[in-house]
Design a protein that fits this description.
Length: 259
């Protein structure tokens, strides 16, 4: 339930504009990897290539290879929908479906994938996913109430439960705590530490303390100037990136000298 990711010479475009240039990175299964870097350096753009979400925009495309346990997700005949069921995504703002109950929200991804399951199996998926998202105890007595009635932090954990319910191999998180208060942030960070026991987790964060707290490895992206592509500058153990970076740009960024 956890796959390795290898990007090989990956370039990412919006039409003719190359937003991210020549990324080579190897991400281990059952680990947390943080993407950091200044605004506009392509963190989110690159993250969205990992489950083929990037290409849903008109003109957006990639070249290079993106291997999931050795299989190129951009290979001929690969169905992007099946890629997205293996590689789930959690967004910046919690986005539960507002008219659906908590229970329906957890099951929404499965239904979208066209899976038909019995009530008993659905109950088991709901409980397992909410437990996996550290939310079960808080909501078990109100599963039929709207998901939108939860706090922001609970809603984000509900979105994580919805992601887990489809049993992905990889979970991508795009600034998952940026709309949350510190206590909810801590709950999601604790959860990320648990998720890596089963999944490959990749998180974009602007919060360097958060990257230092939750990730095993950190990738620092940078951009030379407006209109230039973002590049992966340095990728290493998180402790090395923060305590002993090899590149001056990394050191300047993590020490707060720019960005
Ligand atoms: N839909 C789009 N169409 C065209 N260009 C885009 C689009 N989305 C992003 N870009 C451009 O791609 C580059 C990378 O943007 P991206 O959002 O990936 O950076 P980021 O590092 O995630 O930034 P931030 O930290 O501000 O979220 C930027 O130059 C941005 O303007």
């Amino acid at each position: 339930m956890s796959k390795r990711i290898d990007a090989i010479d990956l370039n990412v475009y919006y039409g003719k504009f190359r937003a991210v240039e020549d990324v080579n990175i190897n991400i281990d299964p059952k680990s947390v990897t943080a993407f950091i870097g200044p605004s506009g350096c392509g963190k989110t753009t690159f993250l969205r290539t990992l489950n083929r979400m990037h290409e849903v925009l008109p003109g957006a495309h990639v070249d290079g290879k993106l291997l999931l346990d050795g299989d190129d997700i951009y290979g001929p005949g690969v169905d992007p929908v099946s890629v997205r069921s293996m590689v789930g995504m959690v967004f910046q703002r919690p986005n539960p479906f507002p008219t659906m109950s908590i229970r329906e929200n957890v099951l929404a991804g499965l239904k979208l994938n066209g899976k038909r399951i019995s009530k008993g199996d659905a109950d088991a998926v709901v409980e397992k996913s909410l437990r996996g998202a550290n939310l079960w105890k808080e909501v078990k007595d109100r599963l039929d109430k709207p998901g939108s009635g939860l706090s922001g932090g609970q809603q984000q954990r509900l979105c994580i439960a919805r992601t887990i319910a489809v049993e992905p191999e990889v979970i991508l998180m795009d600034e998952p705590c940026s709309a949350l208060d510190p206590i909810s942030t801590l709950a999601v960070e604790d959860l990320i530490a648990e998720l890596k026991e089963q999944y490959t987790v990749v998180i974009v964060t602007h919060n360097m303390q958060q990257a230092a707290r939750v990730s095993d490895k950190t990738a620092f992206f940078n951009i030379a100037g407006t209109g230039k592509p973002g590049k992966l500058i340095e990728y290493a153990e998180t402790s090395q990136i923060f305590n002993n970076p090899q590149e001056k740009a990394t050191e300047d960024y993590v020490s707060g000298r720019f960005g």
